[in-house]
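Training component of the fellowship. As part of building independent skills, the fellow (R.M.) carried out the full modelling exercise for a liganded target. The chosen ligand was flavin-adenine dinucleotide. The inputs are recorded below so that the supervisory panel can assess the work.
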Amino acid sequence: MRYEAPKTLEQAIALLAGANGRARVLAGGTDLVIQMRSGRAEPELLVDIKGIPELRSLAAEAGGYRVGAAVTCMELIEHAAFAKAWPGIIDGVKYIGSIQVKGRATMGGNLCNASPAADSVPALIAAGAIACIAGPKGRREAPVEEVVTGPGKTTLAGGELVLSFLLPRRQPRSGDAYLRFTPRSEMDIAVVGAGVNLTLGAKGVCSAARVSLGAVAARALLVPEAAAALLGSKVDAAALERLAAAASAACRPIDDKRGTKEFRIKVAGVMARRAAAIALERARGQN
Amino acid sequence: MSTTLKYEEKQLKIVGTRPARPDGVDKVTGRARFGADYNLPGQLIGKALRSPHAHARIVSIDVSAALALPGVKAVVTRDDFAEMPDEMAPVGELMINFRDVTRNMMAREKVLYDGHPLAAVAATSESVARAALALIKVEYEVLPHVIDVVEAMRPDAPLLNENQYTQGVKPKPERPSNIAKRLEFGRGDVAAGFAQADVIVEREFNTKPVHQGYIEPQACLASYSADGQAELWTATQGQFVFRAQCAKVLQMDVSKIRVTPTEIGGGFGGKNNIYNEPLAIALSRKSNRPVKMVMTREEVFRATGPTPGANVRVKLGATRDGRITAAEAVLNFQAGAFPGSPVNQASMCAFTRYDLANVHVVGNDVVVNRPKVAAYRAPGAPIAVLGVESVIDEMAKKLGIDPIEFRLKNAAKEGTQTYYGPKLGPIGYVQTLEAARAHAHYRAPLGPNQGRGVATGFWFNIGNETTCSLNLQEDGSLTLLLGVIDVAGGSRASLSMMVAEELGIELDRVRPVIGDTSSLGFNFLTAGSRGTFAGGMAAVVAARNLIEKMRQRVAKVREVPVEAVAWKDGRAQPADASVAQFEPMTLTELARMGGKTGGTMAGHAEINAQGAGPGFGTHIVDVEVDRETGAVKILRYTVVQDVGKAIHPAYVEGQMQGGATQGIGWALNEEYVYGADGILQNPGFLDYRVPVASDLPHIDTVIVEVPNPNHPYGVRGCGEVPIIAPMAAIANAIENATGVRLTQQPFSPPRVLKALEGAGKAQG
Ligand SMILES: Cc1cc2nc3c(=O)[nH]c(=O)nc-3n(C[C@H](O)[C@H](O)[C@H](O)COP(=O)(O)OP(=O)(O)OC[C@H]3O[C@@H](n4cnc5c(N)ncnc54)[C@H](O)[C@@H]3O)c2cc1C
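Fellow's submitted model of the complex:
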């Protein structure tokens, strides 16, 4: 096995493209190294992307933020302005492992590992984040919900990698939140995750909303029906109940050691409702 | 000869204080060497090939391609080990059979569980060893398997051992069975007892196997030399028992194997049994190189012993005024692939907290296609007690009596006749109940969806063969060489404290060291909460033996009769004013002149400690139940326990908190999950959920001290009692919060939510 740490994006793409599909991008390694140790991943070439400045930068852009795919979770959490603008994304990254794990782990890795239970992904989808992808044919953009297709599978073509995430400009009276259900209080894997991002109009009526669910289907879902339950409402109890019902209805879970289908369906509604209540609170606090 | 030293009340200087432990610095600085930290020049890495089937006949094993791989130095299979006859031998609180031991470490006719080893290779690197395993060709004839204990007991169940006939049934059954043994305990007449009852409660419970949760995977290093001697370094709870078992299965003289116990990263009963050790020695013998074998976490889960799962039925009758008239239980325990579940202990622990006239307990030891069970803190007792203490709680509620009051009305006391044999001596059960009732926790207000539960536990504790030496060094400092393993973390401290107390010297003059098997005589496993009881008794015997030798030496040197010499405050002094007076002599003076006045001095103990004192505990827990998700949060927890005497109270509290923590994990989320194919689905700590720190509140402790009359300092042993009550206490608290009684462990969110929904008590 070969390890390369290119200093430019071009070199990284060339290395990836030239390895016949036997190369893997290495970001924090908190998924990949474990897979290699267990024998589930056996790459011939590791392309460490942490030396490429563009992947490691977090900067304001167009009134929003551009977050390099290899920015670590701890860097995000400690970035006060970003954390204030997108508390729901911070909710998501905070769940990822311990402080030590978060010191290495990245949102790029969380997305590209393509686990349906990845915690930052529903928050990114709810936020309307756009992934910037670079490859041998140049750059392209895709909404985060279109990057993953199923467990361990993405739409990334040979030689492509995720460069950054663009978070749009925040509207006034907006709030987001992500909640997950796990049997343990931490160091666990989501049985259900729910991200909600909403904006209130001047009179407190919901004017925009996005809802995303994790761990209830082969990939994180954007659930427009659940968002529709909030639009035009004051996010009152009745609207929250409709949201919960729509969220439950959107689930296509499996039965496994982590939870039964019926449990996941029920709890998805509960988590979506509770996340929406937190997002509402945050939106009201942001004038 | 068995040994008991009677309890003597005296002024204490060191016992009962909280000094830092002698092994602490090495552990916090990372210097402590655990099993996997040992290496030898030229060592090979050993790896085991494990069954991918729950049950299959081994048609053939072809290792030729593996042996041909460059870097592979040896391969062993069943052909490298002798057939063993049926022969029972004690291991901790369990009895084992060498026919089974040899088959468990290396499958012979059949593989009996997912993970069962059937070959092992030694190679120059781990990657070569893994590649070699992939080259071993095994032809299996896959057989139907059985995982569930109730299914395994059915007459038409797939049989694990075609030659196994249920013991304990007369006449001998005509057909073989997965039920290895049926046990029965009782006294009085239960039918008459139930006839006297005003209220009868009967319930059935099911539990899953759970893992001890030791952090260190099994690891060993073996070196076999050309003259037929073997050395073994291993993380074990019993260096002598491991040596005995390895000698037996490898057909070697006991004295030709030297086992050095390494620092141990947790055991809790899970490191009482050999797994890779004989394979490593056999590979070393074949390859002429040292062989190291370290299990992966997955191997630990698939192939070492958890504590059993079980099916338990309990029936209780009581009068309106709260007297229990009859108690009955059936305990069906999974033994794993070979007989030997702790159903015996569980049967005896089920009702022993109560003074009962009419009791009947039936226990079945049942083989299933899972790894052979091992001990885990008070083996079996928490499972029986989940059933019994749940039913006790329900009965108290039906009778409208406070649950602690109900237990007090029926509590076992000194003189209570047990249903399994002895009368109980002085015990502290009532004291723990009274202390719990008086505790502020018991009266604290509860919020919505919150509930409080109480449950109690009893464990025998044991003594057994114990050795130690106390060497007086030339400067007056002492080396305490111990045969018991410091498995719970703290026994090196406690045993040194008793020695310093006996000798009247500073604690840091005593350096405790755990001995290898060549440095001391046979020592039983460190199990059954015997470390501080039996190890402490041996340490006191050795200290008194040394004092005796020093008195004689002083008498000789000072030319006075030995009766005139007393050992007080760390020195030899005239016994009183009436005897021949002489210049006192300190330990240091004695040590300095030792060599010239007759040789160096040492105290020894080779004892079989008897008189272990039963331990009792009462637990109180508050929970909050999320009715929308089924999540149970532990809000507050208090452990009250009679430990006889807390030699080092901080470490005793640590035992109480640790036991409660493991019990909380057992109650809430821990379980082995097997698929329909009989394959373990959660062999790792991601999906086998032990509690993390943030799942737990501070666990409050109340130490009760009713001295054990059969120990010089009154010690009972305290490590096992605290894991017994938590599961039942939490079930009772959930019932108190929601009105729903849980009978399927673990009380994980999906199960709790389903139970709430079933009772119409869920929300959302
Ligand atoms: C103890 C522990 C606890 C954890 N807890 C959680 C948790 O609670 N929630 C959770 O969601 N996850 C958890 N994880 C998983 C992991 O930490 C996260 O998924 C993390 O975000 C992965 O990021 P990484 O940078 O370490 O990825 P890596 O391991 O470096 O990469 C993961 C995958 O993505 C690919 N990749 C990485 N970056 C890119 C890129 N820019 N473009 C294309 N492909 C890329 C890699 O090739 C690899 O296939 C945990 C892991 C551990 C070890």
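The panel noted the following from the submitted structure. Residues 63 and 136 of chain B are 5 Å apart (CA to CA). The mean pLDDT of chain B is 96.
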